[in-house]
Structure formats: structure tokens, C-alpha cells
Specification:
With 294 residues, the protein is of the alpha+beta class. 45% of the residues lie in helices and 16% in strands. The strands form 3 sheets. It has a 5-stranded antiparallel beta sheet, with helices on both faces. It has a 3-stranded antiparallel beta sheet with strand order 6-7-10. Helix 4 crosses helix 8, helix 5 crosses helix 8 and helix 8 packs antiparallel against helix 9.
């Protein structure tokens, strides 16, 4: 399996495949960008930058299906969203290297890390991202109340009784059984922070990556709150976005915490390799972000 971590081997293999398919005119020189760092489910990534740059992502040996599963989810979401799926990259090539799955996509520049440009870059991308999230919210549909009941139960199992999220959850459960709650489902990325938002290409202002935890029938508000935390949205600006989402969802303001908590419960039930301490930090961070904006 050592060959899958060798940049020369991967460059030759991928270059030949893309040239044979007419997608590349000359050999490619890839450099290894990351390789797990001791985390067993971390992917191996090679890239070449520039106008015609490439990113090759390979599953780790212990989890050979990770990349295939992630890009299947991305394809399902792109199909589900239709024209709103433009920020999701389409693979140039996919298959197996030895026993593990891999995918090749066009390279997209990450957001700037330079002090002066970083703020302007994120403000510009944030504007487009928030507009896109609102359009996605307008795709919401009614769903069964049982989806929320199960998600909240999973959240209770992950929380200490004295946490900020537990206090909000008690209020949310009263709303759930009141008969006034509007259960809705909407497409959800699931890990919408700035590290998964890249520059776009052409008429698409941004690119979204890492669709491994996405759901075509997810829960409203969660992606908005995660993006708000990561991009430093103030409580005032988040309140404005929440009002827009409330109108798009056709719900009451009391429903918004329930949407968020159900999403958190959904991931609590599927935390996999995530340590419980990290999960609880994410849950309480989302709650602290939402509560002042309501």
C-alpha cells in the first residue's frame, strides 16, 4: 500500500488516465499535501496548483471506501439541488488505486490567509454563501414529526443535564409536543465551516467540499449557524439571516431552536470517530451562537 503515498507514482497513474480520456494534454506533477497524521480515517491528498490544477484524494488503507462514499453523497446532493448544486465539484476521474477508492477534481483556491486580504475575501464569499443557504432553505419540505423525536432523544443521550444545550432542549421539547411545531426537512451540508469553502470558478463564486456528512433530507438552520460561527457573523447579522430563513421555511421563531437541536442530535447519533468531548463542544458552541440571535 506504500505506493498510494508516493507522489511520483500517483502523478504518473493519474496523468496517464486523464491523458487517455482527453482531459489532460501533458503529464501532471502532483505533490503530497496531507496524509492522515496518525488519524486512521484521514484521507491522503495530492495536488497541483494553477489554472488547470488538480486534487487527488485517496482513501486510507483502513477505510478504503471513504472517498467513494463521500463523492457518492456529493453526486446525490448535486442531483437533488439541480441548479443550486453548482458549488459542488464534479469529479474528472474516480475509481480504485490498488484496493482503495480515489477521486480527481479540479483544484480550487482556498480562502486567503493573508491578514489584509483574509477579511475582504471572507466577507465577499460570506455574502454569496448566505444567499445560497437561503435559496436552499426555500427547498424545504414537510416531514414526519418522528424524525425530530428520534433526533432529540439522541441529543439527550450525548448531553450532561447542566449544559447550555440541555436547557434549550427542555424548552424545545415543550414546543415539539405543543402541536404547533412545523417539522421540515432541507438539504444539509453538515460541516459548513470556512475550511470547507473554497473559491469558485466562472459564474460560481464559491466551492463547497467535504460532503461526507451531508443529507439531502437534513434539518434547517444548522448549516447557517455553523457558517455564522466560522465566518464571524455578529448576533445582529445572524438575527437578520434567521428572519429570512424563518420566512423561507414558513415557520415560527420558536421552531428555529428545534431545527438546530434536531440536526445536532442527528450527528450525535452518528458521531463515529468523533470524541464525545469534541461533539459536546460543537453542540454548546452552536447553541451559544443561536441563542443571542433569536
Amino acid at each position: 500500500m506504500d505506493a498510494i503515498t508516493d507522489a511520483d507514482y500517483i502523478s504518473q497513474l493519474i496523468g496517464e488516465r486523464l491523458i487517455d480520456r482527453g482531459l489532460l494534454q501533458a503529464p501532471v506533477s502532483l505533490q503530497r499535501y496531507s496524509q492522515g497524521a496518525g488519524v486512521p480515517d484521514s484521507k491522503i491528498v495530492f495536488l497541483s496548483k494553477g489554472k488547470h490544477g488538480l486534487v487527488v484524494t485517496i482513501s486510507p488503507a483502513l477505510f478504503p471506501e471513504i472517498v467513494a462514499e463521500e463523492w457518492l453523497k456529493a453526486a446525490q446532493m448535486r442531483s437533488h439541488l439541480g441548479e443550486l448544486g453548482a458549488p459542488i465539484l464534479e469529479p474528472l476521474d474516480a475509481g480504485r488505486i490498488q484496493a482503495v477508492s480515489y477521486v480527481v477534481v479540479p483544484y480550487r483556491e482556498p480562502l486567503s490567509r493573508l491578514r489584509g486580504l483574509r477579511w475582504l475575501d471572507r466577507i465577499r464569499i460570506r455574502h454569496h454563501l448566505l444567499a445560497w443557504l437561503l435559496q436552499v432553505a426555500r427547498r424545504s419540505t414537510v416531514c414526519a414529526l418522528s424524525r425530530y423525536e428520534g433526533a432529540l432523544k439522541a441529543l439527550w443521550d450525548a448531553l450532561p443535564a447542566d449544559s447550555p444545550a440541555a436547557a434549550l432542549l427542555r424548552t424545545a421539547e415543550k414546543r415539539l409536543i405543543s402541536g404547533s411545531f412545523a417539522p421540515r426537512t432541507t438539504p444539509m451540508h453538515g460541516d459548513l465551516w470556512k475550511g470547507n469553502v473554497l473559491h469558485g470558478s466562472g459564474s460560481t463564486p464559491f466551492t463547497l467540499v467535504d460532503w461526507r456528512g451531508s443529507e439531502t433530507h437534513g434539518f434547517p438552520v444548522f448549516d447557517l449557524v455553523r457558517a455564522a460561527r466560522s465566518f464571524g457573523l455578529s448576533s445582529r447579522l445572524l438575527r437578520r439571516e434567521l428572519q429570512l430563513h424563518q420566512a423561507a421555511l414558513g415557520c415560527q421563531v420558536e421552531d428555529l431552536p428545534l431545527y438546530l437541536l434536531a440536526a445536532l442530535g442527528h450527528y450525535a447519533a452518528r458521531r463515529g470517530e468523533m470524541p464525545l468531548k469534541l461533539l459536546r463542544a460543537m453542540i454548546n458552541g452552536c447553541v451559544r451562537c443561536l441563542t443571542p440571535a433569536l
